[in-house]
Amino acid sequence: MYSILFIYLILGIVGSLVLGAAITSTRGWRWIRFVFTSITVFALGWILWYGNYRLSATEAFHEDSPDGRFRVVVYRLPNESMTPGSGGDAPAIVKLFDSSGHLLEQRDLFMIQLAQIEWSTDSVMINDIYWELDGR
Question: 3-class SS at 86?
Fold first, then answer.
């Protein structure tokens, strides 16, 4: 998702600069400059909002593997549009760490209440997310 927004951002900046330098006040080109500037502002705003949104995640809970080599941490993302009683409907990020704290895997969850962790000797499963632990 970030790659598409960065492409729009670069396209908007380059387009605004090129059109701004080449065309000063021609009436027919003003709307094109406006479109490129709007694309730039939108992409930059989205990147800043989405990055801040992901950084504001708080740890909901964690669970260590039975052998202690891995840890799954579930982070709750903020959801301002929730109604009372729907706390489990918040989106989440699930991360798999090794015992030294290095991030091995990361995925998004639609709802935090879906985070049911099941460990086996060579894998961990969080609902439809399946991570192999062999060779790590």
Answer: coil
CB neighbourhood size of 18 (10 A)? 12
Cross-strand partners of 77: none
Q: What are phi and psi of 103, to 5 degrees?
A: -75, 125
For the segment 27-84, what is each residue's pLDDT rounded down to a tens digit? Answer: 666 667 777 777 777 777 777 766 666 677 888 889 999 999 999 999 888 766 655 6
Q: What is d(CA 43, CA 9) in angstroms, rounded to the nearest whole number?
A: 5
Q: What angle do CA 45, 50, 55 make, to 5 degrees?
A: 130
Amino acid found at 75 = Y
- The separation between the first and the last C-alpha atoms of the chain, rounded to the nearest angstrom, is 28
Q: Angle at which helices 27-55 and 2-22 pack, to 10 degrees?
A: 150
What amino acid occupies position 2? Y
Spatial distance between the Cα atoms of 49 and 73, rounded to a whole number of angstroms: 23
Q: Are 71 and 95 in contact (CB under 8 A)?
A: no
Global pTM exceeds 0.85? no
Helices (H), the chain: 2-22, 27-55
